[in-house]
Write a structure and sequence with these properties.
The chain is an alpha+beta fold.
Length: 144
């Protein structure tokens, strides 16, 4: 099957002077969502509460693998399958993702008057879809 190249606008959020997050907008369950783009995150994640509020029928299992982050080596997560995520015009019919508590991220974003983030687009997405970030054009490019 031939894959098509997609290009989506990135958004830059300044958290403090010389400290930034980049994010991409998407659509899921007829809602606009914001995903932090984080190639240092090994897996794509969604906020647990947000996901379960909007997909109560999803099968969710406990993640038995070790979770590692820069700030913590032990925290609980769950695994589920996300269906029908749109990024730009691209429809990703199905992808496995990690559910975790993102309330600390959203509290920080709220204090800075930034939009809440529903998830993190991790390096699994970048590898699977040969994604790249072009900082000159400020686009996320990927194949699907």
């Amino acid at each position: 099957m031939n894959k098509k190249r997609h290009s989506v606008k990135l958004h830059l959020y300044e958290l403090e002077q010389h400290s930034f997050h980049i994010a991409v907008k998407g659509r899921w369950k007829n809602r606009t969502i914001h995903l932090i783009v984080d190639t240092g995150a090994s897996r794509t994640c969604f906020d647990h509460d947000f996901f379960t509020q909007h997909d109560s029928d999803a099968s969710i299992v406990e993640n038995e693998a070790d979770n590692v982050s820069i700030t913590s080596s032990s925290f609980e997560t769950n695994i589920t399958t996300l269906t029908d995520l749109k990024i730009g015009k691209a429809l990703i019919p199905e992808m496995q993702l990690v559910l975790l508590d993102m309330s600390h991220v959203n509290q920080a974003y709220k204090s800075l008057k930034l939009p809440s983030m529903q998830g993190i687009l991790g390096s699994d997405f970048f590898v699977q879809h040969q994604a790249t970030i072009n900082f000159k054009t400020f686009k996320l490019n990927f194949w699907l």
